[in-house]
Amino acid sequence: MKLMEHQGKELFRRVGIPTPRGVHAASVANVTAFIESNPGSWVLKSQVMMGGRGKAGGIKFADDAKAGEAEARGLIGKVLKNAQNPDGEEVKSLLIEEKVAIASEAYVSIAIDRAAKKPVVIVTAQGGMDVEEVAAHDPDAISKYWIDPAIGFQPFEARRLAFAAKLPAGFHKAFPKVLDGLYALFLDYGAQLVEINPLVLTQSGDVIASDAKVELDDNALYKHPELQAWRSDGPADEDQAAAVAIGLGMSNYAKLDGTIGVIANGAGLGMGTMDAIRTAGGSAANFLDIGGGAQAELVKKSYQLVTSDPKVKAMFINIFGGITRGDQVAHGIVQALQGGDVREVPLVVRLTGTNEKEGRAILAAAGMHPVETMDEGARRAVELAGR
Ligand code: GDP
Ligand code: MN
After folding, report:
1. Within this chain, do residues 202 and 138 fall inside the same structural domain, yes or no?
2. Which of 9, 88, 238, 316 lies in the 20 to 30 Å Cα band around 147?
């Protein structure tokens, strides 16, 4: 789960990493009202998942409520784009933060180094820009430290890192505390990445996290059930949202560019099915994994979703019954077809495993005759889609 900046900063505050004073606002009126009652210089920061908001025009400044209102109007609803995110992302809310006078910008992150099987701390004095850019142009400016998870992280190692990365002296005193908080967050919340870019040294000598990028491992979310609410930021695209809407997982449905709609149970069988279609000379229009133990209702909704894709010229349903029962799948197919609200396309079914006989009988009663093997089904679907 990726967090928005304002969420990441909420976690920063929990572990004692200083962040600028601020408030999360979801409407222009909220921005105006906030600045009216809190005169000063404020930064308006677009809350989106993508990085590089500054360059994409997603960070604005305002010295009074009138300017804040104008900038907020320009930002909320705007689609931010940059080279990494050509499709762009719509701004739905803003983080209003006290503008800090920057003396120096550093970069610090902790990520998992899979090769080393350890968390790695990355630090550079060249903050505020893409760390990839720094790595490409000035690799020596980047310092790394691999944490032994059995031993943990000591303040002297943080001091050593600050020196190695040539952080300006103003950072040195606060840096161990920032890193300590960052590593505590990394462990306690099961993060895959925690990044502060820039970590700012202000002109008054404070060290403060001006930006926050946090990615949590979904498998660690049980540790902090209170964060479940943040999941509603959920599906990143329409297809994921469509899958969630019928009760499946976000990644159970994917659109592709061929002509055959595919429903299978399990991602592995789904990929095998797409390979079989490819071998038979066709290609999948989409792929929906109904998961294990699907009931008739879910099969019916899945069928409706997949056939709603106008690219679909033929359907191939490939079920290997285990926990999933053939009779439930067959009922779902029949219900979907009899419901009348599905687009009619030629259908090929392969049904094997648990309750196969019962499933076949249900299909036969509705005038359908499943094929015997996956390859046969793929060939048949390709043929039907080509007509
Ligand atoms: P990103 O572009 O998505 O990484 O967003 P950041 O939060 O890192 O902001 C981008 C840039 O905006 C920073 O590198 C700063 O140069 C600038 N910026 C953000 N907040 C402040 C602030 O409080 N004061 C000043 N002077 N600049 C800021
Ligand atoms: Mn940043």
Report:
1. yes
2. 9
Is the residue at 5 inside a domain? no
List Cα–Cα distances, 125 to 171, 177, 259, in angstroms.
Answer: 10, 17, 52
Residue 193: how many other CB atoms lie within 10 Å: 15
- What CATH code is carried by the domain that includes residue 325? 3.40.50.261
Question: Whole-angstrom Cα distance, residue 271 to residue 5?
Answer: 36
Ligand number, closest to the Cα atom of 52: 1
Q: Which residues have a beta carbon within 5 Å of ligand 2, which is an ion? A: 197, 211
Task: State which of 71, 99, 127 marks the end of a domain.
Answer: 99
Buried b (16+ CB within 10 A) or exposed e, 321-335: beebbbbbbbbbbbb
| 206-220: pLDDT as tens digits | 999 999 999 999 888
In this predicted structure, what is the pLDDT of residue 125?
A: 97
pLDDT of 312-361, one tens digit each?
Answer: 999 999 999 888 888 998 998 888 888 777 888 999 999 999 999 999 99
Residue 153 amino acid letter = F
How many domains are contained in the chain?
3
Give the Cα separation of 347 and 368 in Å (integer): 9
CA–centroid distance, residue 274 to ligand 1 (Å): 45
CATH number of the domain encompassing residue 130 = 3.30.470.20
Q: Give the distance (Å) from ligand 1 centre to CA of residue 100.
A: 9
Most distant CA atoms of the chain, gap in Å: 81
Do strands 347-353 and 314-321 pair parallel, antiparallel, or not at all (unpaired)? parallel
- Cβ(52) – ligand 1 distance below 6 Å: yes
pLDDT in tens, 33-88: 999 999 999 999 999 999 999 999 999 999 999 999 999 999 999 999 988 888 89
Does residue 9 sit within a domain?
no
Q: What is the pLDDT of residues 295-306, one digit of tens each?
A: 888 888 999 999
- Which ligand has the nearest atom to the CA of 43? 1
Q: Which of 359, 312, 366 is CA-nearest to residue 334?
A: 366
Expressed as residue numbers, the domain containing 280 is 238-385
